Recover the amino acids of this structure.
């Protein structure tokens, strides 16, 4: 008889043919309408064969439950037998004997069905929460895990151009809370000091999955909110941690670029990777830890996570804006991809990012994932049409320094009471191109000029100036005159670049037009031409998205290359990249679905590449012609 034994001393798993044994557990389990009490001595459940293989005993599948002398054997259904196996696994976890255990995880396919007779894999799920938010002291909460699920994805450049936003990855973790450990109102909880008053907000969270001894991180992020569920007749007390990937920190972080930095950066054109690194550093992210720039990668002989830039830009700045929103706008204007991975590192893929050579820059020599029927339980193919367009229009307004003169004055006189300090923000129409000069005068209520006791401190940012005014006199000060003189960027003449599809797909179909406007980082006509051509090539025909259910790997990352060969309905292999990862973990094991974006027709105008001395400039892609991007 085969058995699974879970003891207080160690965890021993033996699986051969028929049965399960669990010792040193005390609880009550209801299976169908049969109560089974597990004593401190022994609990034995014997299963006959109930999988799809030949049954030596014949007849309908059945099972017998034997307990301590106080109980009597009782027949239960096949469904109850399956439920029993999972219930006993849950007992082992709840008792803290093992981090996670599942019969389904040991089965040939982790689909939640118990297949007894062979061991394919063992699964360990580890949940760590840094309640103190110091980034180093993680508490292992794995023994209380009920379930967890998460997802993260790539947002296509044209979607960010149109919608202005990317996507932040998410994770939901449900933990057992019978003793009130995670209840903020429980003053006896050892975590009370960290949970009271919403103190767990933005606590660091990480989840590791170990399969057959190989450990991979599947989530790194922060806790956004906690939801507690009280016990009911059908459910136990639990708490759910709603988490986001680390780019949540950038989304909530709003900053303004110091004018001195903006003036230094705008002296000459720089490529987008420079500004991406700059913005990440403004947010307190560290090169070599939170991301890897080109310069760091070369100096330390490691793989970068930030691709080299393609587009020269001159004016990039923040004006009390979310760093993540600004990064999304910047990356979209360069036809790139920006995201935070499962390890908590930030990535930027430039316009060539889906090509094998580009992927290898970031991930090294990652072998293409070969997928067939043996590796998944289901393959779904779809060709969405919501992002289908035959015409693309891109607006560009090249910026240049405007006229020198007054760039700001208040709408009403500024009044500062005696002994008080007031802060005034001078918000400008655009970024400044030189240091502004401040002119002001203060008067009493009777109109006499105040010559001493009024101090104005000026702090310059790219598109705003902070004025801190202090009054040390005994009279109210009226600043009837206050002006900033300087120079700001002028939007210049607005241009619109248009591209229309000549693809036969649109023959007999009405045109669909997409307009891309109001992105300040589209700063040249050549850049707008590139965006129009790239977007049209991506959207003039439906692009295949394949969904792989229960992909038997836990190490996949966004952007990894995939080759799908499926005998039933895929006559030609599908070549693509992973564009979305969705995983879930509970007592039945760990399962993962991925979406694969077909890439054969994604990249605009690189087939063939332009070769000096070989190709002539052309937009048709005819013989001897090729696109040239610059």
């Amino acid at each position: 008889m085969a058995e699974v034994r879970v003891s207080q001393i160690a965890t021993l798993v033996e699986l051969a043919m028929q049965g399960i044994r669990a010792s040193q557990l005390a609880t009550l389990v209801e299976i169908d309408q049969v109560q089974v009490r597990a004593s401190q001595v022994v609990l034995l459940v014997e299963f006959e064969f109930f999988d799809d293989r030949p049954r030596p005993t014949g007849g309908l599948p059945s099972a017998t439950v034997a307990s301590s002398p106080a109980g009597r054997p009782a027949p239960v259904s096949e469904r109850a037998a399956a439920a029993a196996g999972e219930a006993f696994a849950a007992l082992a976890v709840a008792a803290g004997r093992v981090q996670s255990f599942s019969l389904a995880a040991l089965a040939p396919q982790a689909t939640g069905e118990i297949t007894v007779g062979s061991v394919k894999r063992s699964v360990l799920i580890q949940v760590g929460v840094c309640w103190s938010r110091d980034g180093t002291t993680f508490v292992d909460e794995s023994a209380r895990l009920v379930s967890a699920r998460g997802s993260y994805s790539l947002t296509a450049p044209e979607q960010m151009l149109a919608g202005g936003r990317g996507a932040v990855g998410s994770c939901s973790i449900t933990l057992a809370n019978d003793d009130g450990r995670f209840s903020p109102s429980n003053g006896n909880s050892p975590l009370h000091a960290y949970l009271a008053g919403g103190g767990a907000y933005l606590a660091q969270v990480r989840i590791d999955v170990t399969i057959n001894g190989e450990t991979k991180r599947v989530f790194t992020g922060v806790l956004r909110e906690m939801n507690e569920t009280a016990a009911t007749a059908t459910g136990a007390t639990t708490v759910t941690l709603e988490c986001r990937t680390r780019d949540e920190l950038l989304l909530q972080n709003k900053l303004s670029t110091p004018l001195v930095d903006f003036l230094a950066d705008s002296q000459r054109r720089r490529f987008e990777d420079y500004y991406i690194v700059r913005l990440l550093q403004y947010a307190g992210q560290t090169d070599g830890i939170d991301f890897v720039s080109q310069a760091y990668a070369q100096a330390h002989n490691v793989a970068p996570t930030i691709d080299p830039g393609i587009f020269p830009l001159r004016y990039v700045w923040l004006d009390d804006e979310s760093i993540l929103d600004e990064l999304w706008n910047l990356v979209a204007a360069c036809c790139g991809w920006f995201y935070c991975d499962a390890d908590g590192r930030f990535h930027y893929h430039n316009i060539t990012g889906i090509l094998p050579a580009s992927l290898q820059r970031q991930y090294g020599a990652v072998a293409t994932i070969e997928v067939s029927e043996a590796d998944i339980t289901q393959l779904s193919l779809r060709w969405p049409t919501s992002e289908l367009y035959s015409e693309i229009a891109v607006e560009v307004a090249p910026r240049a320094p405007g006229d020198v003169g007054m760039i700001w004055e208040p709408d009403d006189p500024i009044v500062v009471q005696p002994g008080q300090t007031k802060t005034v923000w001078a918000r400008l129409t655009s970024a400044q191109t030189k240091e502004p000069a401040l002119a002001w005068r203060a008067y009493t209520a009777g109109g006499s000029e105040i010559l001493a006791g009024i101090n104005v401190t000026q702090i310059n940012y790219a598109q705003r100036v902070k004025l801190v005014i202090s009054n040390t006199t005994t009279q109210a000060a009226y600043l009837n005159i206050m002006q900033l003189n300087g120079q700001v960027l002028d939007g210049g003449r607005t241009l619109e670049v248009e591209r229309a599809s000549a693809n036969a797909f649109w023959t007999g179909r009405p045109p669909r037009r997409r307009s891309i406007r109001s992105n300040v980082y589209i700063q040249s006509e050549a850049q707008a031409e590139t965006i129009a051509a790239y977007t049209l090539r991506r959207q003039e025909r439906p692009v295949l998205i394949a969904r792989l259910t229960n992909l038997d790997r836990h190490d996949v990352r966004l952007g990894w290359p995939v080759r799908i060969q499926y005998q039933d309905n895929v006559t030609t292999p599908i070549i693509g990249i992973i564009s979305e990862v969705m995983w879930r973990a509970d007592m039945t094991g760990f399962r993962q679905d991925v979406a694969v974006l077909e890439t054969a027709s994604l990249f605009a105008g690189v087939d063939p590449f332009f070769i000096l001395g070989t190709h002539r400039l052309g937009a048709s892609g005819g013989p001897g012609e090729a696109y040239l991007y610059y």
Notes: Residues 78-94 form the longest helix (17 residues). Residues 1-119, 604-608 have pLDDT under 50 and may be disordered.
